[in-house]
UniProtKB/TrEMBL annotation:
Annotated region described as Disordered, given as residue ranges: 185-209
Lineage: Bacteria, Bacillati, Actinomycetota, Actinomycetes, Micrococcales
Reaction equation(s) it catalyzes: Hydrolysis of alkylated DNA, releasing 3-methyladenine, 3-methylguanine, 7-methylguanine and 7-methyladenine
EC number: 3.2.2.21
Membrane is among the record's keywords: no
Protein species of origin: Leucobacter muris
Protein name: DNA-3-methyladenine glycosylase II
Superkingdom of origin organism: Bacteria
PROSITE patterns linked to this entry: HTH_ARAC_FAMILY_2 (PS01124)
Residues passing through the membrane, by range: none
Length: 518
């Protein structure tokens, strides 16, 4: 019996109709490979569509490259924002894709990734080839190449520095991969005008590089709502909210603590429309990094924090028929579901925030970061910012000590310590975790209930269908008094109940941000 391939699972006729109609809704979900030219395109590419016998459709850019195709220079399929389709699934392949997206192959290799997922390297490779058409190494190589091209086009860094920043092991590997992906040497790709290192994104010093980039997301993007969310949840020592509209956030990377600054006033003016009518928006980010090797982890953390891989059209289509959400969908097109910059920090902070106001929660979270910073990163943290809190340091103290140092009730101090111990002993709450197992283990900790579990699932585990039915603000917005009724109303919103929750919270968060503008 022949082995099933990714292409054989795609409906060729449906894919070809999408490409013939230049349907941008399919961009990033399928790729058109043209056998007569050896290039691959997005379905919305404005070029004349080839005959059906010259077409192949594959589910990932890495699969296209693995099959011997190079990226189209006209529609630039590699410039697409990512997709959250893999976040809606909890199986092995989805978990692997999420971890590779977060840089696991660069950090621990394929061997380490397979060990994290509790499978053999051979099995992991076979599963990814069967469903995506590319191996873990091919997915990671394509990820590096796309990041490198963005750095080439947006910064004036030397090519050798870009190779290092994008995660390549050598300049030769960098050159070979870029030729394979794009059919052109890195030196022949377009570079920014000579505006000086600071403006074009070059390092401002040898000790602490700084890059200015625009991270692409599908339009629309509800910038005011996102800034309101960040302001309402800003933690002292970890976030800074400036009066001019800029926000700055500590981002945890392998080299220590980076800072991502976002100029929200500049977001609306950067909408780029392609020939097919789809659009993207560039979010202006300035990164201050411990070292250039931290570029990729910092960018991915910011993308997760701002949910830049969401597809607003897909979400609006899924939720638009619900009268309870229609007003918010119209008022805040492109509303995102912000992720946790660090899973451990968020989980510990969520326990501290149980059954208290946002303002009180921020105060406790700031105390936690001040009292228990990760020691290896604390010394190199930039001025005004702290490293993430360490679960190991929290776990090392008794409940009474935590109560005194943080100003907690004894019950909350014990819950905080129990969670920290579980994390220190291996509880995985990151995007690549087994979500159902994580939920079970969290619920087994005394003092942690469904509200806390779903909040952690939503923002740390990255589950777009997480739904804290017991949340007071959510129930008020729904006009119900009980968890069961709130859960019943949300059944038709799957698999985007998390986005629906964000819409139902939006008015409250914007009011909170106005009361405390900082």
């Amino acid at each position: 019996m022949p082995t099933e391939t990714p292409a054989s699972r795609l409906d060729f006729d449906a894919c070809y109709r999408a490409a013939s109609g230049r349907d941008a809704r399919w961009d990033g979900r399928i790729y058109l490979c043209v056998t007569s030219t050896g290039i691959y395109c997005r379905p919305s590419c404005p070029a004349r569509k080839p005959r059906p016998e010259n077409c192949r459709f594959l589910p990932s850019a890495a699969a296209c490259v693995a099959a011997g195709f190079r990226a189209c220079r006209r529609c630039r399929p590699e410039a697409l924002p990512g997709t959250r389709d893999w976040d809606a699934r909890g199986d092995l392949v989805a978990r692997a894709v999420r971890r590779i997206r977060d840089g696991a192959v660069d950090a621990v290799g394929v061997t380490g990734l397979a060990a994290e997922l509790a499978v053999s390297e051979r099995h992991l490779r076979r599963m990814l080839l069967q469903e995506i058409g590319a191996t873990p190494l091919q997915l990671a190589r394509t990820r590096r190449a796309h990041a490198a091209r963005s750095l080439i086009e947006q910064t004036d860094l030397p090519l050798a520095d870009i190779a290092f920043a994008a995660g390549f092991g050598s300049v030769r590997q960098f050159g070979d991969t870029m030729r394979e992906e794009f059919g052109i040497a890195p030196s022949r790709l377009s570079r920014p005008g000579s505006t000086g290192g600071r403006d074009a994104g070059g390092p401002v010093s040898d000790e602490r590089p700084a890059l200015s980039l625009r991270l692409r997301a599908r339009a629309p993007f509800a910038a005011e709502a996102m800034r309101a969310f960040l302001a309402a949840h800003a933690v002292p020592g970890r976030d800074r909210i400036d009066a001019d509209g800029t926000t700055a956030h500590a981002i945890d990377v392998p080299g220590g603590t980076a800072v991502a600054s976002i100029d929200w006033a500049d977001v609306p003016g950067d909408t780029v429309r392609c020939a097919a009518g789809a659009s993207t928006v560039g979010i202006p980010i300035r990164l201050s990094l411990p070292g250039l090797s931290d570029t990729m982890p910092a960018i991915q953390a910011v993308r997760r924090l701002l949910d830049l891989d969401a597809d607003p059209a897909q979400i609006a289509a899924a939720l638009g028929g619900e009268p309870l959400l229609r007003t918010s969908l119209a008022a805040r097109p492109g509303l995102r579901l912000p992720g946790a910059r660090d899973a451990v920090e968020f989980a510990l902070g969520t326990v501290l925030g149980q059954q208290i106001s946002l303002a009180a929660a921020r105060t406790l979270q700031g105390r936690l970061a001040a009292a228990f910073p990760e020691e290896a990163a604390a010394a190199g943290a930039p001025a005004g910012f702290r490293a993430r809190p360490s679960a190991e340091r929290v776990a090392a103290l008794g409940a009474d000590d935590l109560r005194e140092r943080l100003g907690l009730t004894r019950a909350r101090a014990q819950t905080l310590r129990s969670l920290a111990v579980a994390i220190a002993e291996g509880l995985d709450l990151g995007p690549g975790a087994d979500r159902e197992r994580a939920r079970r283990e969290l619920l087994a900790i005394r003092g942690i209930g469904p509200w806390t579990v779903e909040l952690i699932a939503m923002r740390a585990l990255g589950d777009p269908d997480a739904y804290p039915a017991g949340d007071l603000i959510l129930r008020r917005a729904l006009g119900v008094s009980g968890d069961r009724e709130a859960a019943r109303l949300a059944e038709t919103w799957r698999p985007f109940r998390g986005y629906a929750t964000q819409h139902l919270w939006a008015d409250f968060l914007e009011t909170a941000a106005r009361k405390d503008p900082r």
